[in-house]
Write a structure and sequence with these properties.
This protein is α+β, with helices and mostly antiparallel strands. The protein is built from 16 helices and 15 strands. Strands 2-3-4-5-7-6 form a six-stranded antiparallel sheet. Helix 6 (219-235) crosses helix 10 (273-282). Mean pLDDT is 76; it is low at 1-12, 19-25, 191-195 and 322-395.
């Protein structure tokens, strides 16, 4: 099978498209205009769904990114309502590699989302500037996005427009580039309540076949888009026939609907066999034949990542991908569980004085049908207050030691 030719740096067909909308005139906000509680500072960029502005909260004086729905889309009241509803749904996704959505509203016929303001560049801009990535760099960019989508899907939110343009790169600590998934503006709820009359929305190159043909869509469509993105990051090309990519959006959609994609091994012969097989499964035409969840995708790719990326994912994002535990389950449990009260009883505090507790160190255990986290031990007791220490040779020494031991036993039981 011939390898597709490299894509040009930018083409209009890569933009998000929304079907069934006829352009009509509704103005965008002007510089200095106040939209809701935000004063427009400057335009940052524009995409298929809307224009993004830098804005400032008029009371807090905090800078934000404000995305305003495109004028020709904003004339449709139902679409404005959907845009705001899905923006609020996206705000439920809490993850260090997701751009935070803090507000959404529809005021005076203008729908907008408010997001954290970041400085950096898109993953697509990085790809155009520096060419295809190696396997280690690709996984450093993609694995955090897999993790973010796993959390989004766990709270019932599907992105529906995953692509390099919607991955934003910011500078992190230790010279690390941190990818952040953004633009949940056409996200969809995975609760069965989707409006079947809603217009087709997404970017043709990254739509899954079921998305194009109007079938029921769930998180497997996001998985397909990530598979296409991995292929593109590694090769600088998309996994479709060049003739289809040279045409209009309809031609691209026909090619996607056919389910025909190039094998990664044809474009990158030295690609690891496990990576080739993973991408092939992610881009299968039948959604049920793909991986069950993004969680499974992440755990499959982890073994191919660099040690630095593995440490990052285990320490900062997901301590469970290297074990037999679901990241989504961990995040859901963390969100639902109340913060434990680790302070000792008042009578113990009176004897021991201020108490500082170090986090317990978790160890990996042999796992059978359940996953367990076991603390390696109990921290050493802290020094007694000076007054108590001076009385250590007195008749109360036994009582003090007994209370100290009892306090640490209580603490250990709570940590378990």
């Amino acid at each position: 099978m011939p390898v597709p030719a490299p894509r040009p740096p930018s083409t209009p067909s890569r933009s998000t498209v929304v079907s069934g909308i006829q352009p009509r005139g509704v103005g965008l906000p002007e510089i200095g205009e106040i939209v809701g509680r935000y004063r427009i500072i400057r335009a940052i960029g524009a995409g298929g769904m809307g224009t993004v502005f830098e804005a400032e909260h008029i009371v807090l004086e905090k800078r934000v990114a404000l995305k305003v729905l495109r004028p020709e889309l904003a004339v449709d009241a139902a679409l404005r309502k959907r845009f705001v509803h899905e923006g609020l749904a996206a705000s439920r996704v809490r993850h260090p590699h997701v751009v935070d959505v803090t507000d959404a509203a529809d005021e005076n016929g203008r729908a907008y989302l408010v997001m954290e303001l970041l400085e950096g560049r898109s993953l697509y801009e990085e790809l155009v500037a520096h060419g295809p990535f190696d396997v280690a760099t690709t996984l450093e960019m993609v694995l955090p996005i897999c993790s973010a989508l796993a959390v989004a899907h766990a709270v019932g939110v599907m992105h529906r427009d995953v692509k390099p343009e919607n991955v934003f790169l910011v500078d992190g600590p230790g010279n690390r580039i941190l990818p952040k998934l953004m633009d949940f503006g056409i996200s969809d709820m995975m609760d069965g309540a989707r409006d079947e009359n809603a217009p087709l929305a997404g970017t043709p190159h990254y739509m899954a076949p079921e998305q194009v043909t109007g079938h029921s869509v769930d998180g497997h469509a996001d998985q397909y888009a990530v598979g296409v993105m991995i292929f593109e990051l590694l090769t600088g090309r998309l996994p479709y026939e060049p003739t289809a990519l040279d045409g209009d959006a309809i031609g691209i959609l026909r090619e996607v609907a056919s389910g025909r994609v190039h094998r990664l091994a044809d474009a990158l012969p030295d690609a690891p066999a496990k990576l080739v097989a993973t991408v092939a499964r992610m881009t299968l035409k039948d959604p049920s034949a793909r991986f069950a969840t993004m969680d499974r995708v992440g755990r499959t790719l982890m073994s191919l990542a660099s040690p630095r990326t593995q440490r990052h994912l285990r320490d900062l994002i997901d301590p469970g991908w290297s074990k037999a535990i679901s990241f989504s389950d961990v995040m859901a449990a963390m969100a639902a569980a109340p913060a434990p009260d680790l302070s000792p009883p008042a009578f113990v505090r009176g004897v021991l004085g201020p108490l500082h507790v170090e986090p317990s160190v978790m160890v990996e255990a042999e796992r059978s049908t359940t996953d367990v986290e076991v603390p390696t031990g109990i921290p050493e007791p802290l020094p007694l207050p000076a007054e108590t220490a001076r009385r250590a040779d007195g008749p109360w020494v036994g009582l003090v030691i007994g209370l100290a031991i009892a306090a640490w036993v209580v603490l250990a039981l709570q940590l378990l």
